[in-house]
Amino acid sequence: MRMLRLVVLLVALVACGMIVGSPVRAADLKITEMAVTTKISRNNPIDAVRRISHRSVKALYCFTRIVNPGAQETVIRHVWYKDGTMASEQELTVKGEKWRTWSKKPVDAESVGSWRVEAVDSTGKVLKAVEFKVH
Question: Start and end of every DUF2914 domain (predicted)?
């Protein structure tokens, strides 16, 4: 009987999110900053690209600053779209309450077009998106 009560208590604590290791609710993640940048310096973007020549850089980065209440490890995805078609997708681990992460996309002559990067949570919900053009 005592063991049954312990199991019931553990199940209740996990369901309430009170035991470490329980999944982060996707609705709890908040993106406080998201930018496409030409470079990351000291874990921060140096600029925010809106329009850029494909000749001026070899790669672009999508920087994302996240607030993750409870600081439990989870993942987000950066989904890169060119002219409305998915071009790439990168899974990024979030390991703390305040976390910074980024993905990288090579740039060349084939990159010319309208771009959008979406930050997507584990349920597929778009948390934030940024748009830019490569000419």
Answer: 74-134
* Residue 122 within any structural domain of the chain: yes
Beta-sheet pairing, 85-94 with 126-134:
unpaired
Q: For residue 32, what is the domain's CATH number?
A: 2.60.40.2550
Q: How many domains does the chain have?
A: 1
Tell me the C-alpha distance between 134 and 80, whole Å.
13
pLDDT at res. 26: 52
Is residue 96 within 8 Å of residue 108, measured between CB atoms?
no
In a domain, 14, yes or no: no
Amino acid of residue 14: V
Report the C-alpha gap between 116 and 74 in whole angstroms: 23
CA 42/CA 134 separation, integer angstroms: 25
3 assigned to some structural domain: no
Tell me how far the alpha carbon of residue 96 is from its chain's centroid.
13
- For the stretch 109-135, pLDDT in tens is 999 999 999 999 999 999 999 999 999
Burial (CB count <10 Å: 0-12, 13-18, 19+), residue 116:
middle
